[in-house]
Amino acid sequence: MEHIEHLEHLDKELVDELAQVARETVRDELREQSRKRRRAAVLYGASGAVALYAGGAVALAVVLAWAIVLPGWAAALVTAVILGVVAFALREAARPKRAHAPHRVVGGTAPVAPPSGMGMPYPPMPSEPPGWDHEGPHHRA
After folding, report:
1. Which has the closest alpha carbon to 76: 56, 50, 52, 90?
2. CB under 8 Å to 141, separation ≥6 — which residues?
3. 29, 104, 119, 134 - which has most CB atoms within 10 Å?
4. Three-class SS of residue 10?
């Protein structure tokens, strides 16, 4: 009997030691992964900042090209409008497309049944708000 208790004590120590090694290994791996991700995030941020300055230089070049035939203020305005149109087109391209978006009718009523024909699309609406009768709201004491 004493031999079994001794083995249980060794088993507990072994399990505790294995758990400690596993925790340290996972912690070290997470630390390494976060260091790599942090470096990648800094590089992406720097890349974005440099790209922003490059875009500004291109916009300035477009303004200067337009300024050959237009006054400076008009060249800047034309360039701003062009950039605005490009920004709008990029935003629209980024939006998810709806396969079949239903058109809403202002002041219209909900359809009687969904297009699939399976039951009511909405729960029935009461004719009056809860707690109201024809004379006004019920006041409960």
Report:
1. 56
2. none
3. 29
4. helix
- Calpha distance 32→27 (Å, rounded): 9
Checking if the pLDDT of 50 tops 60, the result is: yes
Question: What is the DSSP annotation of 14-81?
Answer: HHHHHHHHHHHHHHHHHHHHHHHHHHHHHHHHHHHHHHHHHHHHHHHHHHHHHTTTS-HHHHHHHHHH
**What average pLDDT does this structure show over 13-24?**
85
Token digits of residue 58? 């291109």
Q: What does the mean pLDDT of the chain come to?
A: 79
Name which of 121, 120, 124, 125 is nearest 102 in CA terms: 121
Tell me the C-alpha distance between 85 and 4, whole Å: 80
Q: Phi-psi bin for 119: left (phi > 0), alpha (psi -120 to 50), beta?
A: left
% the chain with pLDDT above 70: 65
